[in-house]
Write a structure and sequence with these properties.
Structural class: alpha+beta
Helix content: 10-25%
Distance between the termini: 74 Å
Shape: elongated
Length: 133
């Protein structure tokens, strides 16, 4: 019996987050591209971005500026790992080449889902004490 084992080489969990981005790169013919889009998900070492107008080439370098919800921006240099040429939703998977600690602190960690604390449980004795007053 053969078994198929897949390994996941991800560097950590991805969080769904739609942050505004500005991407810049040079095409192989020398054309300089500047486009805007949004993140789909954010990981500790990169992001998947939706770039509606144009996609960079796999292996290319992209200067990415990511804007957090407060309007602060972080600029990083990335490498294109893969692209998804879905006509309705083109995506580029980008891996950081620098500033990974700043990325984690300013972009990745704040994108983590927040679970609200449950409301305090009132004791039945507390309710009776309030009724007596």
């Amino acid at each position: 019996m053969t078994s198929h084992l897949e390994t996941d080489h991800r560097s950590g969990p991805r969080y769904l987050a739609a942050l505004e981005v500005r991407a810049e790169w040079d095409e192989s013919d020398g054309t300089h591209i500047v486009t805007e889009g949004t993140t789909e998900n954010i990981g500790p070492q990169g992001t998947l971005v939706h770039l509606p107008r144009r996609l960079p080439e796999v292996g290319g370098r992209v200067c990415l500026e990511v804007h957090d919800p407060d309007g602060k921006a972080l600029s990083v240099v990335t490498e294109v790992l893969r692209i998804e040429r879905n006509p309705g939703h083109p995506l580029a998977a980008l891996q950081l080449l620098d500033q990974s600690e700043e990325w984690k602190g300013l972009i990745w960690e704040p994108a983590a889902p927040r679970v609200a604390a449950p409301p305090p449980v009132e004791d039945e004795d507390d309710e009776e004490d309030e009724d007596d007053e």
